[in-house]
Write a sequence for this structure.
């Protein structure tokens, strides 16, 4: 690797992709810009409800320094379902900035870069998703239910109820990483590696990373890429009954997934299917522990656990927002949007829209339309792993509260500093006593 590739290009990538946007957004936040404030305040773990309401009060699409943002449920769904909006990254034009961006660009594996399902559009997206969906069906997820219950039981068997424990470290992280590892055909001896890589790459979805975090993310993604190469080779030699083994041989009209597409799928399943579920479990434990009346309600009627999971997803979703780039001049809810403008759809804000959810600021496990949340997105990029997340959330939350009915959170819980992924970095608790 040349000196430029090792040191100069990464510095330029960070400068254009993170340092510059961070500076612009911070300055905008000081001037009251809604997008700037959202970006800055999200990293603090603060309650953003007031800001959601403020954005909503500015109309269907609130104008910002970089485009538009919305917290209206109907508008979020409209944007995510409209083919005028794509997942492409912002363009830097043909000037000096654009040339520097092109020169410093990398084809390294990344969860929000092509050929990840999150970052491609039809027709490639249609072919790609069809292949993945065939081995990620509701029936396949249901087959995992018994195994997921087994994993939850085993993890909780290993906890000492008399000792304080960090639930993120000992349970919320280990349950989904074990399930995802089995989906990816990862041997038990390598699961700690997957867990570490997933945690290190979690900030990759964020904008405005510090230099230290940016370099850590790039290093982790490169390490994951190398590990995936070895893992795919091992599965080709000894295929098993797992997602990647099936995807290696899957064909649609005679064509399968390339090596790079296979890696992108594995990376996406890890990032979207593991990190988000960690947040779902942690957020759910915190909400139910902090609302004993709601916990009593779901204990009295165990059939409510599925609805309780959707209410957790609505009230404190694992993903705060997602962005779309306008591909052609259009209009949304009567508001003109010009080509090249960024529209930020705030999923967590749409989940608090009073036009859809009565008393949206209340956490209510009996809410009749809790499932109307948009935490899994909408349109062609609706989360493929939604059913898996719901199943893991239901089993994970029900089992820990059944096994440890006297579970009590301790002081010292810390929210993640990430902006897009929302959850707990640490959740200390005592399980009994």
């Amino acid at each position: 690797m040349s000196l430029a590739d090792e040191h100069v290009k990464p510095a330029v990538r960070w400068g254009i992709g993170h340092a510059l946007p961070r500076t612009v957004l911070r300055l905008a936040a000081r001037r009251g810009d809604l997008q700037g404030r959202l970006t800055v305040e999200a990293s603090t773990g603060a309650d953003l409800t007031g800001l959601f309401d403020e954005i909503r009060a500015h109309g269907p699409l609130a104008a910002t320094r970089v485009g538009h943002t919305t917290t209206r449920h109907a508008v979020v769904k409209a944007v995510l379902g409209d083919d005028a909006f794509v997942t492409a990254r912002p363009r830097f034009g043909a000037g000096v900035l654009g040339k520097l961006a092109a020169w410093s660009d990398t084809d390294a594996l990344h969860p929000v870069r092509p050929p990840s399902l999150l970052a491609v559009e039809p027709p490639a997206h249609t072919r790609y998703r069809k292949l993945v969906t065939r081995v990620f069906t509701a029936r396949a997820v249901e087959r995992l239910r018994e195994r997921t219950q087994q994993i939850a039981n085993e993890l909780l068997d290993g906890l000492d109820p008399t000792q304080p424990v960090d639930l993120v470290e000992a349970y919320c992280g280990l349950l989904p990483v074990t399930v995802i590892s089995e989906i990816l055909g990862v041997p038990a001896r390598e699961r700690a590696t997957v867990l570490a890589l997933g945690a290190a790459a979690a900030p990759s979805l964020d904008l405005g990373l510090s230099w230290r975090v940016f370099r850590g993310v790039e290093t982790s993604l490169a390490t994951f890429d190398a590990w995936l190469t070895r893992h795919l080779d091992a599965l080709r030699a000894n295929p098993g009954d797992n997602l990647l083994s099936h995807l290696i041989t899957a064909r649609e009209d005679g064509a399968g997934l390339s090596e790079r597409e296979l890696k992108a799928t594995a990376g996406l399943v890890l990032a979207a299917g593991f990190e988000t579920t960690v947040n779902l479990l942690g957020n759910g434990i915190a909400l139910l522990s902090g609302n004993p009346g709601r916990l009593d309600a779901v204990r009295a009627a165990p059939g409510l656990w599925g609805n309780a999971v959707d209410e957790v997803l609505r009230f404190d979703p694992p993903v705060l927002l997602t962005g779309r780039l306008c591909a052609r001049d259009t209009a949304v809810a009567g508001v003109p949007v010009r080509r090249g403008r960024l529209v930020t759809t705030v999923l967590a804000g749409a989940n608090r829209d009073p036009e859809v959810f009565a008393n949206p600021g209340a956490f209510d496990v009996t809410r009749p339309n809790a499932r109307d949340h948009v935490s899994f997105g909408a349109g062609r990029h609706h989360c493929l792993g939604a059913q898996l997340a719901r199943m893991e959330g239901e089993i994970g939350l029900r089992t820990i509260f059944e096994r440890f009915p006297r579970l009590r959170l301790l002081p010292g819980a810390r929210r993640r500093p990430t902006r897009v992924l929302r959850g707990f970095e640490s959740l200390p608790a005592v399980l009994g006593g």
